[in-house]
Specification:
Strand 11 and strand 12 form a beta hairpin. The protein has 16 helices and 16 strands.
C-alpha cells in the first residue's frame, strides 16, 4: 500500500485534489473517505462528482445513505454510512455489487464493520491544529502509480502557486477553482478576485500524447499537434495581431507551461445549443462565418507547418487503426497502403489553393459568445494551438459538420452559401471549393471516428461513442461527391458495412 500526505489551505484546494484524482481512475472502484465530522470529506466528494458531472447540486447523502450520479463516462455512487442502523444493512444498499461498474465514494465505511472490501483508494482528512482553514490529507492506494501521479499533481500545483505569485493573481488575491477539462492533456483553472474579476490559467505540461507508434514518433508529432505552450502563445498573438478576438495573454511562463488568460466566460455555441437558445444561434453562426471570411482573407501565418497530403493521410489512419477494428474489420497491409496513397493524393490536391491558417478546431466548444461586443468580435476563439497552413474548406467543415451537435440543414445551407458568396465570384471557384469541402469533410470525419473510438477504448471515455452516428452521417454525405469515388470504392471492397452504424451500435 503506497501513500502520500500533504496539507491544503482552502476548500478550493480540496476541490483541486478531487480533479487530480478523477483522471487517474477508470470507470469503477471504491474510494473510502475517512475522518471526523467537519473535516472536508463531503466537500471533497462534491468536488469529485462535479469533476465528472459538471456544476450540479450535490447534496449530502446523510439521510438517503446513497446518492447516484451519471457522468459523461462513468456512473458514481456517493454514500454516507454515518446513520447506518446495522452493519448488515450494507448489503441492502447494493454498494458492494456496484463496485464492479461504478465509482463508489463512501464516507464512514467503518460503520459497515468490515463487511466492505478493501478500498482501492483511501483519503484521510484531519484538522491542522491552530489553522481552521487547513486540512491534512493522506492518500493511500493499492496502485502505487496512482499515488505517484497524485504526488506529481501536488508538486505541479505548488509550481502553479509560485507562478501566480509573480502576477496580480496570486493565491492571496484570487481563489482558484478547476474548470472542466477536454480531451487533451491541458488543465484549466478559473481565478476569481473578491471584486468579481476573473482570469483563466492554462496549465500545460509539454510532451507528446501517446506512444511512439509512427516511425518512432507519437501521433501528435507526425500530424503537428501542438505539444507545449509556445505554440499556443504564438498562434494566439498572431490571431490578435490580425484582428481576431482571442483571450488576451495576461502573463506566461512558456518554459514551465503556464499561461494566464483573459476570461471570456463559458457561453460556448455548444452551451447555447444545450440551453435551446434558438434565437441566438443564427447570430453566432453569422459571426462565425464573418470570422472565417476575415481569417481566410489573410495568407497563412509563416510559422505554420503545411497541412499536406501526408499529414491528412496519417490522420485518416486512425479510422483504420481504431474505428474499423472496433467494428470487427481488419484490412490487409496492401489495402492500407492504397488507402494512405489515395488520401495523400487528395490532401495534396488541396494544397494547390492559396493556403490560409487552418485552426483545425473551429467548432462549437471553442467559440465563446461575447454579447457585450459588436460584430464578429462577439465570438471569442480558444484552442487555437494546432493551426496549420492549409485549405480554407477545413474550418468551414469543422463549424458546419460539428462532431458534438447537430446543425440544422437550413443553417448549414445558409452558412455555407454566405461563406461562398463572400469569397468567390466565379462559378468555377465555387465548384472547386465544393470539391475541397467534400474532401475535407470526409477526411476530418474519418479521423474523428477513429479518435472517438480511441478515447473510448484507450482513455476510458465511452460517451464519445454516442457521437458516432452523427460522424458516420457526415462521412456518408461527403462520399456522395465524385471527388471521393475512389474512397467509396475502397470502403465497398475492403470494409463493407463499416458505415452501417446506428444509435444502437454506440
Amino acid at each position: 500500500m503506497a501513500c502520500f500526505d500533504f496539507i491544503v489551505d482552502s476548500q478550493a484546494a480540496t476541490h483541486r485534489v478531487a480533479h487530480w484524482l478523477q483522471p487517474l481512475l477508470g470507470g469503477r472502484g471504491y474510494i473510502s473517505l475517512v475522518g471526523d465530522l467537519g473535516v472536508g470529506k463531503t466537500e471533497f466528494a462534491r468536488a469529485f462528482v462535479r469533476a465528472y458531472c459538471g456544476d450540479i447540486i450535490v447534496p449530502s447523502p446523510s439521510f438517503t445513505l446513497v446518492q447516484p450520479y451519471e457522468g459523461d463516462n462513468v456512473r458514481l455512487l456517493h454514500a454516507d454510512l454515518y446513520r447506518l442502523g446495522e452493519a448488515s444493512e450494507i448489503y441492502e444498499l447494493g454498494l458492494i455489487d456496484a463496485m464492479d461498474d461504478h465509482i463508489c465514494l463512501i464516507e464512514w465505511a467503518d460503520k459497515a464493520d468490515g463487511l466492505l472490501p478493501q478500498a482501492d483508494v483511501t483519503l484521510r482528512f484531519d484538522m491542522v491544529a491552530g489553522h481552521d482553514h487547513q486540512r491534512h490529507i493522506e492518500i493511500s492506494a493499492q496502485d502505487e502509480t496512482l499515488v505517484t501521479a497524485v504526488q506529481a499533481a501536488y508538486q505541479r500545483d505548488q509550481q502553479v502557486e509560485q507562478f501566480l505569485a509573480t502576477t496580480d493573481w496570486s493565491p492571496a488575491q484570487a481563489q482558484r477553482q478547476p474548470l472542466a477539462g477536454d480531451a487533451s492533456t491541458r488543465r484549466y483553472d478559473r481565478l476569481t478576485k473578491t471584486n468579481g474579476h476573473s482570469a483563466v490559467l492554462m496549465d500545460w505540461q509539454s510532451g507528446p500524447d501517446g506512444a511512439a507508434d509512427y516511425d518512432g514518433q507519437a501521433y501528435s508529432q507526425v500530424v503537428h499537434l501542438a505539444e507545449a505552450t509556445p505554440a499556443y502563445c504564438r498562434m494566439n498573438q498572431w490571431l490578435e495581431s490580425h484582428d481576431m478576438r482571442v483571450p488576451q495573454i495576461l502573463a506566461s511562463d512558456e518554459a514551465a507551461g503556464f499561461v494566464l488568460l483573459e476570461d471570456l466566460g463559458d457561453m460556448t455555441l455548444a452551451a447555447l445549443d444545450k440551453a435551446g437558445d434558438e434565437r441566438q444561434k443564427p447570430i453566432v453562426y453569422a459571426e462565425a462565418i464573418d470570422n472565417l471570411v476575415h481569417l481566410h482573407a489573410q495568407p497563412a501565418a509563416d510559422f505554420l507547418a503545411a497541412y499536406d497530403g501526408r499529414v491528412q493521410a496519417i490522420e485518416t489512419s486512425l479510422f483504420l487503426d481504431w474505428y474499423l477494428p472496433w467494428r470487427g474489420i481488419k484490412v490487409s497491409q496492401n489495402a492500407r497502403q492504397i488507402w494512405m496513397s489515395l488520401w495523400q493524393d487528395l490532401g495534396d490536391s488541396l494544397m494547390a489553393a492559396p493556403k490560409v491558417s487552418v485552426l483545425r478546431d473551429f467548432h462549437s466548444v471553442n467559440m465563446l459568445w461575447q454579447p457585450q461586443a459588436q460584430g464578429r468580435y462577439r465570438l471569442g476563439l480558444i484552442d487555437v494551438q494546432d493551426a496549420l497552413a492549409g485549405h480554407a474548406a477545413y474550418d468551414l467543415v469543422s463549424l458546419l459538420q460539428d462532431a458534438r451537435l447537430n446543425v440544422s440543414p437550413k443553417q448549414v445551407d445558409h452558412s455555407y452559401q454566405s461563406y461562398v458568396d463572400a469569397r468567390f465570384d466565379l462559378a468555377a471557384d465555387q465548384q472547386a471549393f465544393a470539391r475541397a469541402y467534400a474532401i475535407a469533410g470526409a477526411q476530418r470525419n474519418f479521423k474523428i471516428a477513429g479518435i472517438f473510438v480511441r478515447l473510448a477504448q484507450r482513455d476510458a471515455k465511452p460517451n464519445y461513442l454516442n457521437h458516432l452516428p452523427r460522424i458516420i452521417g457526415y462521412i456518408q454525405g461527403n462520399l456522395e461527391h465524385s471527388a471521393l469515388a475512389d474512397i467509396a470504392a475502397w470502403l465497398e471492397a475492403e470494409a463493407p458495412m463499416s458505415l452501417a452504424l446506428d444509435a444502437g451500435d454506440a
